[in-house]
Structure formats: C-alpha cells, structure tokens
Amino acid sequence: MNTFTRLIGTAAVALALGSGAAKAADLSFMSFTYAEEANKAIVQGVLDNFQKAEKLTVEPLGFAWGDMQKNIFLRARSKTLPDIAQLSERWLPTFASLDNLVDLNTVYGKDKLEAAFAPDALAMGNINGKQLALPLLSGSIGMVANKEVLAKAGINDAPKTVEDFKKALVAVRDKVPNSVPYSMATKNNGSILIDFMVWNWVHGGRIIDDAGKVVVDSQKSRDALTFMVGLLKDRLAAPEIDRPDSRRLLAQGASAFYLDAPQTRTFLRDFSGKGQAFDANVLPMPTPVLKAGDKSVSVQWGHLLVQFAAGGKAKADDPADKFLTYIISDKVQTDLPLKMSALPVTKSARAAVAEDAYLKNWSAATGDARRNEVGIWSNAADLTNIIGEEVQGALLGQKSADDAIKSMQARLTTSMEKAKKSE
To answer: Is 83 exposed, middle or buried (0-12, 13-18, 19+ CB in 10 A)?
Structure first.
C-alpha cells in the first residue's frame, strides 16, 4: 500500500462542476502538461492506467501554459470549472480567493498531509495556513548548459562567476555560427520575470521584500538589468525568445545556456530528435555568482493539483477522490516525475528514486532555492506583466535601465497598494 493511501485512507475529496454542467466523463482534469507535445503521452498513460485500475474515465482538458490562468478564471465565471486542475506553483496565490477552491486540510487533515509529503513540496501549496493545493512534482529553476556546444567553443568547465559566464558567451558567439549563446527570455512576461528575478538575486537585489514592500529601485537591480541589456547589445542573447524557443535552440545545438526547471531534459530529448541519447549533452549547473564565494541561486519550482467544488466544500464518494489519491500514489510518483525529469513529492517516493543520477546532479546544482518573490502575492499576474513590460522596454532600447527600474518601482508599488486595499 502506498504512503498516501496508508496515511489518509479513502478520505473524501469532493469536486463538482457548476450546477447543470454536462460531464463527458466521470471527472475532468485540466492540465498544461497534457497540451505539451513532449509530455502528452506521459499524462495520457497515467489517465489510461487510472481508468484500468478504477474503471473511471477522465476527460483531459489541455491548455497551453500561458493560457491556463485565463481559462480557469473564465470557467469560474461560467461555473464550468474542472474537477481537478494543474497549476504552476507561482499561480496559486492568484486563485486563492476563488470560493470554489478546496482547503485540503479540511479533507485529509493537516497532520496526515505533513506525514505523507516532503515539507518543501507541501509548502508550495500552502497559503496562509490553508492547504489549497497538493504538489504533483517539484524541483527548481536553474541554469542548464549544452556540453556539446561548450566543447565546440573550447569551454571545458561550466562558468562559476558572472565574469566567466560572459567570457563563455563570447566564445560561443565567436566559435559557434548562428548561435544564441544564452537564450535568455526576452518575450512573454511570465518567462521574462524568471530571468530578471534570478539575475537580480545574483546581483544582490530584490523586487518585493517579505513584508510586501517594493524594493526594486536599487543600484543592485539597476546593475542586474544593465547586465541583461548588455547581453542583448553584444549579441550574447537575442530578442523574441521565450522558454519554448530556448529549449529548441539548446536541443538543436544553437545555444549554450538557459534557465529552466529539471523537466528540461524531457523537452530536450524530444526537440533534439535524439531521445535519451541527448542526455549526455545536458548539464545542470549552478547559476553563476557575482563574485567567488557567493552562494548560487535558483527559483523554487513545482506543479500543483487543485480541486474545485461548489462553495469550496468537498463531498463524499466523488470519482475525483480516487483520481487524486492515485496520481500522488507511489505507483505514479516513482514514475511520472522521473519521466518528466522532476522530483517526486511524497517522502516514500523520493526515497525510492534517490539514486537517479540526473536528479542528484540537479539537486547538487540548486544552491539557494528561493521562493518566487512575485508569485506569492494575490496580484501576481499584474506584477508579472509590469516587470515583463519594463524589462522588455529596456532590452529593446525603448528606455534606459534606470528609467525602467524607476517605472517598475512606481507601478509595482501602485499595484501592491491596490491589492492590499482589496483584501
């Protein structure tokens, strides 16, 4: 018997669509992973195995990562929310106020959840003491390199400092034709946020402090944005690059570095056309530091499962109970996360896969994994758009880094003040 089932048994997890909504299957599962070509078959395999085990059907609702939040809000208004939805961990605060979101502590019990899940994974789904989501898989967002491209550029070791990193980028630019040395995110506000946040931390800056005060107007943040602008100016990065573009460029040997979560290995296998043979080129590495002795940084990352029910109240004997229990069981947790190159979330599953070489290397490169300091706020979507717009404005030369930081400070402050008034 798996850990989750042993500890919490068959506690009811109730999820319901809006009144009168027709259901094409026993339950519905809204997922961005299901919409990804590289991962759709993996998710479908889980759904098929669940159907065989429980004689229940699941209607998969696949939406692109960038469209998920909008579609969930639209479905909330039309009372057609799915039974279960997959979220990126940074989105949870945005949905915390939805009346239909279930506090899982009231379903399973706080103590039983804490006994089953790894603390860092469970914490991703906790908002103000409420367990509004259960983790599905976990890891961090850090630097990834293509060892084959590094070798072509004459680079033997992964760069450790920002200065060494720039030297490596220059070598790739000059020795690997038609390459984007660092495929930094330069479009899509959600992707731009991650790159700016990481380099801001590297330079010692913050965007919003733990108390919710906007603190981005600092010399450290200016230095970080100036650094990013310089990379574009020197052709060490390129415009119009989003995370999917970065994955394709690295997989095709046209880029040396980019930031991503550990599931990058799965994408790279697919986009390279080489499958597992491409693994030999994938190098998880610590994010370069400003000066020797600094601790490398990364961003906490994971996928969550949330459940919706009328009024946020779970009812017994719903098929979603069996689905949620199944998908976070040892049977799935020792298989699904590894296929997606991520860490399991239960204590027992992590122990079972502790010797996976890739995940061990990723964990060793993680350094200081920090919680997304923008994604934790209820107005995270607005904050993300502001930061993305200001960073992109500087990258495209529409404004100076100094002006972008000043504008970012003012706009973020206004957004945080409005959010606090509405709470």
So the answer is: buried
For 386, other C-beta atoms within 10 Å of its C-beta total: 22
CB of 306 closer than 8 Å to CB of 85: yes
Dihedral sign from CA coordinates of 376, 91, 120, 110: positive
From first to last of its 423 residues, the chain has per-residue pLDDT tens of: 454 444 444 333 333 333 333 446 999 999 999 999 889 999 999 999 999 999 999 999 999 998 999 999 999 999 999 999 999 998 998 898 899 999 989 888 899 999 999 998 999 999 889 999 999 999 999 999 999 999 999 999 999 999 999 999 999 999 999 999 999 999 999 999 999 999 999 999 999 999 999 999 999 999 999 999 999 999 999 999 999 999 999 999 999 999 999 989 999 999 999 999 999 999 999 999 999 999 999 999 999 999 998 888 877 677 887 888 898 899 999 999 999 889 999 999 999 888 888 988 998 899 998 989 998 888 998 999 999 999 999 999 999 999 999 999 999 999 999 998 876
Residues in the chain: 423
Whole-model pTM?
Answer: 0.81
